[in-house]
Design brief:
- The chain is 29% helix and 27% strand.
- The chain contains 15 helices and 31 strands.
- It has an eight-stranded mixed beta sheet with strand order 2-17-11-14-10-3-4-5, with helices on both faces. Strands 18, 22, 23, 25, 27 and 31 form a six-stranded parallel beta sheet that branches.
- A hairpin with a 4-residue loop joins strand 12 (282-288) and strand 13 (293-298).
- The longest helix is centred in the first third of the chain and has 20 residues, at 122-141.
- It is globular.
- It starts with 13 loop residues before the first helix and ends with a strand.
- It binds ligand UGB.
- Ligand UGB binds next to strand 4 and strand 14.
């Protein structure tokens, strides 16, 4: 009744009234069980919230055990090989429907440069990485393998048009358009009060107000799209989920997929050591008083109260290692397709939900503003039977995790020692990881210098980047770094090609190497020039582009050597 009480008599605003029912129809069809289920679920969750019921009532947390990988050792290298082999049986799913409110960037996050040495955006890097995996995986199993790894992007009304535009205006970054599927998530209805009455849009009385439902929507969308059955018919085995702005992620994918394949995990979550209070969930073993156990992400805002309520008076605190004992969830999930489909047949992809109303006062009778139900993709294992094989894989943060989530002002306020998760740290982490990887491969890389950008202290390593087809796995990289190459801290190196070898390169400046696949290029001898210097940029300086301002620096390209090998055959830089 409350939705219609302001409606004028028939004949007035009829188009708008029809629009209202179109929206109701959409809201009804995009939620498993329709609006009736939504309202029933909301009533229950709102009642629990009002009663102050803890969703973890009856559960005791403990530290779970999982796979802990060490970059570059024999185990890591053999897991990477196993993972690359499996990749041809995988499908990738990127959840990119979030607005990135914490970052405050106006565009879509996947269009942000992953690093500004090449300027390649996150989406380009992800696509190039998937294509490289596809090629390497097919090569491993020999002729006759022409698989195209499917790539799904979940968008929302906030990101859909811009994501499609980015893909189309860049020819899908080299991927066949038919490989890419866009699934748009719908927002859900807002709730005005504890009775779960739907809220009207304050700016349009013929509209129900809506808000995002969270990344958990990806499961029901995949289920209803029919893609899972299609993948099963193509004999695919794995579905890999990942988030919008982690520029290091593909350093971790091959070995993590190798873990899933060798351990036979139905669910494998990627994790990194977590600093207490860091805004990433903690992977936790929960044991219920009735004996049930599950290994699940406990979200960052819930871990502290859960620990305090179960005999840990310090709550979410670091242990003697300087880290939280609970591994940090980076929301990269690898699900085995067969059991995933079986589970979704039961649930239709509905994921356990939560509600987070902001009450006007302690009586909890009214909300400051409307609320809605939310869900998270990592809550998928909550409905699984105890027999499910749920595991996780921990890797070094420097190798696997550097998201871009926080705006400069908030990042600068992050407690000392905790990661900033900003555009500054996201880019610097790439240079650091690449430097450490090349060091491990045998090259001499100078130590970093410490500098401050937008109030955030950062280690500045040489600015080195390479295309995924150059260095997909550590073994690939090691094979291409031979002899005593050295790179000074002020240098920048861009490697763009497959068969480029560092053989006694002495770089002090900027070198950009582009080579066609059929060219075999040896980088030898000294290369010295004035290079690219780093200039500080203040995030408030509106004369700079937003992409630059949020990272707090830009490169002044004073001098560089750029070489292009367009002909097949052997080449040497010193020549
Ligand atoms: N996303 C959607 O696609 N749709 C939505 O409705 C909302 C988001 P945030 P969050 O790795 O650092 C997660 O907002 O949710 C996409 C984990 O829950 O960046 O605060 C969005 O586009 C947490 O456990 O993160 O925290 C983005 O790609 C921890 O792992 C992704 O979902 C944390 O990420 C994540 O959205 C982390």
């Amino acid at each position: 009744m409350h939705l219609f009480e302001h409606w004028p008599e028939p004949g007035v605003d009829d188009d708008k009234k029809k629009g209202f029912f179109d929206q109701v129809r959409r809201l009804n069809s995009s939620y498993p069980g329709g609006l009736v289920s939504y309202i029933q679920n909301a009533k229950k969750l709102l009642a629990d919230s009002k009663a102050g019921k803890n969703p973890y009532d009856g559960f005791t947390p403990s530290v779970p055990s999982g796979e802990v990988l060490t970059f570059g050792n024999d185990n890591f290298v053999s897991l990477e090989a196993a993972g690359v082999k499996e990749a041809r049986n995988a499908a990738f799913v990127l959840v990119a429907g979030g607005l990135g409110e914490r970052l405050g960037y106006k565009g879509i996050k996947v269009a942000l440069p992953r690093e500004t040495t090449t300027g390649k955006c996150f989406l380009q890097h992800y696509i190039e990485s998937i294509l490289s995996l596809q090629e390497a995986s097919c090569k491993m199993v020999g002729d006759g393998c022409h698989t195209k790894i499917p790539f799904v992007i979940m968008t929302s009304d906030d990101t859909n048009a811009l994501t499609i535009k980015l893909l189309e205006s860049n020819s899908y970054f080299g991927m066949e358009p038919s490989q890419v599927k866009i699934l748009k998530q719908e927002k859900v209805a807002c709730l005005a009060d504890n009775d779960a009455r739907l809220a009207l849009d304050p700016n349009d009385k013929y509209k129900i107000q809506t808000k995002p439902h969270g990344h958990g929507d990806v499961h029901s969308l995949l289920y209803s799209s029919g893609l899972l059955e299609q993948w099963k018919n193509e004999e695919r085995k794995w579905v890999l989920f990942f988030q919008d702005t982690n520029g290091l992620l593909f350093n971790a994918i091959p070995s993590a997929l190798g873990v899933s394949a060798t351990k036979g995990y139905n669910v494998n979550s990627l994790a990194v050591p977590r600093k207490a209070k860091e805004a990433i969930g903690g992977i936790t073993k929960l044991t219920h008083v009735d004996g049930r156990t599950m290994v699940i992400n406990v979200e960052y805002n819930q871990l502290d109260p859960l620990l305090r309520a179960t005999g840990h008076p310090d709550g979410d605190a670091n242990c003697e290692t300087g880290y939280s004992p609970y591994p940090g969830n980076i929301n990269q999930l690898i699900l085995e397709l067969g059991p995933y489909i079986e589970e979704l047949k039961k649930t239709h992809g509905a994921i356990s939900e939560f509600v987070n109303p902001k009450y006007t006062d302690s009586t909890k009778t009214a909300f400051k503003s409307s609320t809605r139900l939310e869900c998270m993709m990592q809550d998928y294992p909550k409905t699984l039977p105890p027999s499910a094989k749920v595991g996780f894989t921990v890797m070094d943060t420097w190798l696997a995790y550097a998201p871009v989530k926080n705006n400069p002002e908030d990042a600068a306020k992050v407690p000392k020692g905790n990661p900033y998760h900003s555009a500054t740290s996201g880019e610097m982490a790439i240079y650091r990881a690449n430097s450490l990887i090349l060091r491990k491969a045998g090259a001499q890389i100078s130590d970093p210098v410490v500098d401050t950008f937008n109030g955030q202290e950062a280690e500045v390593w040489p600015r080195m980047t390479w295309s995924p087809r150059w260095g997909l796995t550590f073994k690939d990289i090691k094979e291409k770094v031979c002899g005593n190459s050295s790179i000074t801290q002020r240098s920048a190196l861009v490697i763009n090609g497959r068969n480029i070898f560092l053989e006694g390169l002495l770089l002090d400046g900027t070198l950009i190497v582009n080579a066609v696949d059929e060219a075999e290029v040896k980088l030898t001898g000294p290369v010295q020039n004035k290079g690219w210097t780093i200039q500080h940029v203040d995030y408030k300086d509106t004369s700079e582009k937003e992409e630059i301002r949020i990272r707090g620096f830009k490169f002044e390209k004073v001098e560089q050597l750029e070489v292009n090998y367009t002909e097949p055959g052997k080449h040497s830089l010193s020549a």
